[in-house]
């Protein structure tokens, strides 16, 4: 493994932002970090990047610790915070030059040219970073974060507020890094992005609720997901919500989805009977595949 966090904790006075989190990351792995606002994602990643001292616990990165090997680990880790580290009053190329030189990269020009070409930013070399779109600025931030060819890349919600095309391009960039055996940790608010990851860490109120592959997390939850199709969704919603075992109701298009624990499976038929008898005789009930979104909603609202 390349990263081992053990009982990692960070407190701010009486507030515990990260509470005894332990997990390991294998070399060349892509790990997604998800959770609601205030879950501790940013604090956790900042500690792994060496940008924030933990209150308790330990971090071992590539058999080194920040206490003894901070300078070496700075060379092995690239970190992009929620606010792009690119300087707005510098041009794209000036940012590349600045980070290349501050990282003491001898061939920063060659690396910078390759990175900008790959990120499709070459034609914008003379443009101020403040004049870039959100997606372009994030791509520049990633280029600056990896100019020194780190073994580990830590990204804090790099696609937030970015248009769909730029989001896709950012993930293509990450995929290329993975092919070169870089280890990546990325916090994301988009669950469809998290499903691309080898493993997902779900944080809530500073605690690690789940850490596994997406299929395994879904299997661990023992949830079944059902949908009700009805011509009158509003009234059908009111009927379904009256059944206590039907949880996390969501209206999607022409259907209502809800979660059911395994212990309550035999009661699901009563939901359909109630909707048909009270609202819509043609209503239909179907079981659908559970998703990470279902798991997230169930864990966070429990």
Structure notes:
It is elongated, with a radius of gyration of 23 Å. The longest helix is centred in the middle third of the chain and has 16 residues, at about 165-180. About 35% of the residues lie in helices and about 25% in strands. The protein has helices at about 40-50, 65-75, 90-100, 110-120, 135-145, 165-180, 190-195, 215-220, 235-240, 270-280, 290-300, and strands at about 5-10, 15-25, 30-35, 55-60, 75-80, 150-155, 185, 200-205, 205-210, 225-230, 245-250, 255-260, 285-290. It is built from 11 helices and 13 strands. The strands form 3 sheets. The chain has a 6-stranded mixed beta sheet with strand order 5-6-7-3-8-9, with helices on both faces. Helix 3 (about 90-100) packs parallel to helix 5 and helix 5 (about 135-145) runs parallel beside helix 6 (about 165-180). It has 2 domains: about 5-210, Rossmann fold (3-Layer(aba) Sandwich), CATH 3.40.50; about 220-300, 2-Layer Sandwich (Alpha-Beta Plaits), CATH 3.30.70.930. It has about 300 residues and is α/β, with parallel strands linked by helices.
Tally of DSSP β-strands: 13
- Strand neighbour order, sheet with most strands: 5-6-7-3-8-9
CATH domain class name of the largest domain: Alpha Beta
The number of distinct helices, counting runs of at least 4 residues, comes to 11
Distance between the termini: 33 Å
Helix content: 25-40%
Poorly predicted runs are none
Q: How large is the share of residues in beta strands? A: 25-35%
Provide the gyration radius in Å: 23 Å
Second-tier CATH architecture of the largest domain: 3-Layer(aba) Sandwich
